[in-house]
Structures are given as structure tokens and as C-alpha cells.
Specification:
heterodimer; A: 6 helices; 55% helix; 11% strand; elongated; B: mainly beta; 5-stranded antiparallel beta sheet
Chain lengths: 183, 442
């Protein structure tokens, strides 16, 4: 439960960090173009400073690695991977999300993840437990292929027992056929 | 008009008796095909207020069986009789019923009652009215009397239903049986409830409540224990619980799936699905020793095993042919043969108690319905037309199937007779109801 809260907090923190990163980047770009905005800021700061001293500073410039990390954090904020009906292959459009989680887990070998597998409500509950496990294992296999240790991952299938959407419509079924990465 | 009248009769009879049932019943099809039967309210021989009416239980049972359609007691030519001696065949010629049940309830000491009943052969009575009076004993199909306590009224009502049903059909009645099922009440702290009730929804008892899913209840052959799957430890584990002592034993907690338990006919073993070795495979657990025996070995999904009545084979669902179909494995040789070929998917199979048919979930044109297949002729018949049908469970006498379905966006239980003619919905008060399991004879 605490882990869950931590994760939710991360969901909020990550986009905020990303926003911060964007604005600093643009500011440094304007500075570089030699506009007057920088000196204006300095003057404003100077009026409230003591002893008439004026300070200047530059916004940090993100290295390509740092920018990539921000992007990865944004991707990791997504923790649901959807599947096609009766299928358990990871779709290419979901690969980026799983890769972001994989990179993070490789960099943090002490972090463990629980991979939940779910199915829609069609078919029998028993068959859907098997299908849900196959989906969760497909994600685990993908992560393992990236170098995530087996000991970092555990898998549980809830089959059709924990639907996200109770409408029992095609769109509802699509939302329920999922894998979920829980830290 | 005649059909409507019957409908109303059934509705009146059922609404008057089902006030305390956890699972109500709405018969949706098949009343017209049922045989009319006359049940007269049992005559109360006491002086103070009458206790509950035992014949209401019988009337409700017979209507629920799908085989009988009880006539409105007020339309019967005689009223207020309790023995065959008071029966007068004249006047009954026009009554479209094969039999008449009459009886009485007499106070018999503190909280004890003498219940007696006579089952009268109306066919014989009607045939012989032209040939002068028949000795009353010749018309008796059955006659019994028993002393019961007030707490035993419903139970003894079911007992009478069993006797009447068997006398008139030659098939053992299954009115003294229970149903286990899972109720999910979303929004509650512990939404998942494992429940049992009498087969008609009365005497509902909670066996377990959990914040995490509960699945797949399965009865032991003596009707005393239930095996089920619980996710209470954030993983699937199989437990066996005694329904009287509440004692629970964890019997399987391997890595991965621990699912789909099914008791062997001798009650000593459980067929289960485990994925500890990679893919979901069928295993047999010796409950006492926990010894495991692997039954299947295939890279595709193998799951939901059930025993053939002789205990020599298992029926299971496998995806080894590309799509889920039903297979049979002979336990002595390990030989596997495919059972279903028709339709897109076939899964969740159980063999009927007589060993002649199989009940399962069939998918045709993307629709999931309960189907029956004759094992000799391979003729398959889809029995239901409800939505998203699953988890069929057969009554111990093989006449009815209870299953999980969806009605108006909610999971509910429903029942269908083995020939598909009688159909009923079993609406529950609150929450979603699923995974029904019909008990053995009790």
C-alpha cells in the first residue's frame, strides 16, 4: 500500500520535473540568443538585494543523457500495457513504455517490480488466469531480454477477476486486457 | 392465455416463498413444457397459529426443477384434504395433472411436528372413475409420516420434493443440495465473498471474505469441504475448507498459477492447474501427503481439469490445437484425445453424472454459451442464449446446469435444464455473483 502511494507520488512528481526541465531549457536558449531578458531579471533582483551587489546566473543546460532521463521518466509514468484479444505478444507501440521500465530496473538492481496480468471477461475464469499469466510473462521476458534480473521481477495473474472497466463492451474489454507494472 | 395463467401461478407461488432467499428465481423459459402437478397446502391440525407452510417449499422446488408446473391450489376441485381417504375422484377428471400431493402438519410435543403426506395417482383415479370407486390404497404412489422440529421445515420440504420427483420421474431429486458461489461487492473493504446456500438460495452462509479475489469453489464428494483459490497473499493459492468447522488448509502454493481445483470422486485427490514449471499444466495433488503428480506436459495452456465419474480420466481445456478445445487424458496411460471439434472455442468441460454427456462453454460467432455434447454421437447442442456464459456446474442428479452469466451489465447466476427447454435467472440482491458450484447429494 505504501509502495503504491510512493508510485502515485512519482506520477505527480515526474511530469512536474519534466515541465521544469522544459522551461529552463527554453530560458537558456533565449539567453544564448542574447536577448535583454537576462539583464532585466538581474536588475529586478538587484533592487531587493543588499549593498547594491548584483548577481547573475545561468540556467542549467541538460545534457542529452539528462534529457533522455526525463523522457524515460515520462514513459515510466505509464504502467499499463494493453494486449489484443486472446493474444499475449507485446505490441510495438507499447515497447517504448516497457523499455523505459527496463532501463530503470537495469540501473536500479535493488528495485523490484510486480507484473500483473489481466484478461477481459470473455472465456472461462480459469482460461483467463492462464492467459493473464502469459501476458505478464511476455512483459517479464521482454524486460529480462533487456538485462533485468529475474530476481527483480515477480508475476501474478488475476485473469478476469479485477477488471478496470465494468461495461462489458468492446472498449471495456480492451481496457481490461492488460499488464500492469507495480513497484 | 393458458400460458399466461401458468406464468402468473408460478410468479405468485414463488414470490410468496422466496422472501428470504439470497438468490431469487425468474423462470424465463420452459413453463409450458413442464408437467402440471397438483400440490394442496398441507392442512394444519393445531389450535394456535400455524407454523411455516411446508407445501410452499415443495411447490417452489417442483417449479424450479423445470420438470413440473404446479397448478394454482385454488383451481383444484377439492380443498383442505390431507389424506387419500378424503380424496374423491369425481371432479378431478378435468385436472391436467398426473399426481396430487396432500398432507398435514400436527403439533407433536414441544417444538415438534408430525408431518404426513400422501401422493395420489390422478391418472389411475381418472381412469377408474367410470368403473366405480377404487380402494384408496390403490391410488397411493407414496405415503409417509415423520416427526420434525420447526427448524427442519425447509429441509423436510426438500425431502418431500425429492420423494415426489423420484416417484414421478424415476430420477433422484436434487432438492437437498447446496450451491457455492462468489459474490463481489465493489467498493467494500473486503469485496470478495465465498458463499454457500441451499440450492434455492435459502440459508445463505459466508465461508470467507477477502480484500483480494476468490475463485473456483469446488465441492468434495461428501459435500463437507470446499476447495477454492484465494489471492489473500497477493498470489494464487489453493485452500480446502471444512464448511462446518471452518478449518482451512492450504494445499497448494507453488510459484505462479495454483488454480482450478477439482476433487477426485474418492475425495482424496485434487486435480489442479500449476504453472510452476513454466506453462499451465494439469497436476494431481494427494491431499493428505501433498504428493504431486504431473498429468500434462505441453507448451500450450492446459487448465480447468474435471474428473470423469469413474475417476479414470480427466477432461481439460487445452490450447495445444491453436484454440481452446476440450481434451481427455486417461490417467493410467497418459493417453490424450481431443473431445470437441465443433465451434471456435470449447472450454470448461464437465462430464454429466451418468457419463453420457459433457457440459461446457462454447464460443460460436464470438458468443459464449453453455452447450451439451452427447459423448457417443458427438452431437452438440447450445443450451443457452444469455451473454458471456461461463463456469457451468451440473446438479448431482444431472438434470440441471447452474452457470455464471451477465444480465444488464451485472454478473448473475442462471440455470438451464439439460435439454435446454427450462431457463431461469437467479438474481441476487447485491453485487456481482459468479463461479457457481453445485454440491453433491447431501
Amino acid at each position: 500500500m505504501n509502495l503504491n502511494k510512493l508510485f502515485k507520488a512519482m506520477l505527480v512528481v515526474v511530469p512536474v520535473m519534466a515541465l521544469g526541465a522544459c522551461s529552463t531549457t527554453s530560458e537558456s536558449e533565449t539567453d544564448a540568443s542574447g536577448s535583454t531578458s537576462g539583464s532585466t531579471t538581474t536588475t529586478t533582483g538587484g533592487e531587493y538585494g543588499s549593498g547594491g551587489v548584483e548577481t547573475g546566473g545561468a540556467a542549467p543546460i541538460l545534457t542529452p543523457e539528462e534529457q533522455q532521463r526525463v523522457e524515460q521518466e515520462e514513459l515510466r509514468a505509464q504502467n499499463i500495457i494493453y494486449f489484443d484479444f486472446d493474444r499475449s505478444e507485446v505490441q510495438s507501440e507499447n515497447a517504448a513504455i516497457i523499455q523505459a521500465h527496463g532501463n530503470y530496473l537495469v540501473e536500479h538492481p535493488n528495485v523490484r517490480v510486480l507484473i500483473e496480468g489481466h484478461a477481459d471477461e470473455r472465456g472461462t475464469p480459469e482460461y483467463n488466469i492462464a492467459l493473464g499469466e502469459r501476458r505478464a510473462k511476455a512483459i517479464a521476458k521482454y524486460l529480462q531480454g533487456m538485462g533485468v534480473q529475474a530476481s527483480q521481477m515477480s508475476v501474478v495473474s488475476y485473469g478476469e477477476e479485477k477488471p478496470l472497466d465494468f461495461s462489458r463492451s468492446e472498449s471495456g474489454f480492451a481496457k481490461n486486457r492488460r499488464g500492469v507494472l507495480v513497484y | 392465455m393458458k400460458i399466461l395463467a401458468k406464468w402468473l401461478t408460478i410468479l405468485v407461488l414463488l414470490t410468496s416463498t422466496s422472501a428470504n432467499a439470497a438468490l431469487d428465481i425468474v423462470i424465463t423459459e420452459g413453463v409450458d413444457a413442464a408437467r402440471p402437478i397438483a400440490v394442496m397446502p398441507f392442512v394444519w391440525k393445531g389450535t394456535d397459529a400455524a407454523p411455516q407452510q411446508i407445501s410452499d417449499v415443495v411447490t417452489s422446488d417442483l417449479a424450479r426443477s423445470g420438470t413440473f408446473s404446479p397448478l394454482d391450489a385454488r383451481s383444484l376441485p377439492q380443498a383442505n384434504i390431507s389424506t387419500v381417504k378424503e380424496f374423491n375422484a369425481t371432479g378431478w377428471e378435468q385436472t391436467a395433472s398426473d399426481a396430487l400431493l396432500v398432507g398435514s402438519i400436527t403439533p407433536y410435543g414441544t417444538n415438534q411436528y408430525l408431518v404426513s403426506f400422501d401422493l395420489i395417482d390422478l391418472v389411475k383415479a381418472q381412469l377408474q372413475t367410470g368403473q366405480g370407486p377404487t380402494p384408496a390404497s390403490d391410488l397411493l404412489l407414496e405415503s409417509r409420516e415423520t416427526v420434525i422440529s420447526e427448524a427442519q421445515f425447509r429441509q423436510y420440504g426438500h425431502r418431500i420434493s425429492d420423494i415426489v420427483y423420484e416417484k414421478l420421474t424415476g430420477i433422484r431429486g436434487a432438492f437437498l443440495s447446496r450451491v457455492a458461489y462468489v459474490v463481489v461487492k465493489q467498493g467494500e473493504k473486503s469485496p470478495y465473498h465465498l458463499m454457500i446456500s441451499d440450492y434455492d438460495g435459502y440459508n445463505e452462509q459466508m465461508l470467507l471474505r477477502s480484500p483480494e479475489p476468490l475463485m473456483s469453489p469446488a465441492w468434495s464428494p461428501d459435500g463437507r469441504r470446499l476447495a477454492y483459490v484465494s489471492f489473500e497473499n497477493r498470489r494464487a493459492e489453493i485452500f480446502v475448507q471444512d464448511i462446518y468447522t471452518q478449518e482451512r488448509v492450504k494445499v497448494s502454493s507453488h510459484q505462479g498459477i495454483n488454480g482450478a481445483p477439482s476433487f477426485s470422486p474418492d475425495g482424496k485427490k485434487l486435480a489442479v492447474t500449476l504453472s510452476k514449471d513454466g506453462q499451465p499444466e494439469i497436476y494431481i495433488i494427494d491431499i493428505a501427503t501433498k504428493a504431486l503428480k504431473r498429468v500434462t506436459n505441453h507448451y500450450a495452456i492446459d487448465t480447468e481439469a474435471s474428473w470423469t465419474p469413474d475417476g479414470e480420466s480427466l477432461i481439460f481445456t487445452s490450447e495445444r490445437g491453436g484454440r481452446p478445445q476440450i481434451y481427455q487424458v486417461k490417467l493410467s496411460t497418459g493417453k490424450i484425445s481431443r473431445v470437441t471439434f465443433e465451434g471456435e472455442w470449447n472450454l470448461g468441460g464437465t462430464i454429466t453424472p451418468d457419463g453420457r454427456s459433457m457440459i461446457f462453454v462454447n464460443r460460436t460467432n464470438g458468443k459464449y454459451n453453455i452447450a451439451r455434447m452427447d459423448l457417443k454421437t458427438r452431437f452438440m447442442e447450445v443450451l443457452t442464449s444469455t451473454q458471456l456464459d461461463e463456469s457451468p456446474s451440473i446438479a448431482p442428479n444431472g438434470t440441471m446446469v447452474i452457470y455464471g452469466t451477465t444480465y444488464r451489465g451485472k454478473q448473475v447466476l442462471a440455470a438451464v435444464s439439460m435439454d435446454g427447454r427450462f431457463k431461469a435467472r437467479l438474481p441476487a440482491g447485491q453485487g456481482e455473483v459468479k463461479s457457481p458450484a453445485w454440491s453433491p447429494f447431501l
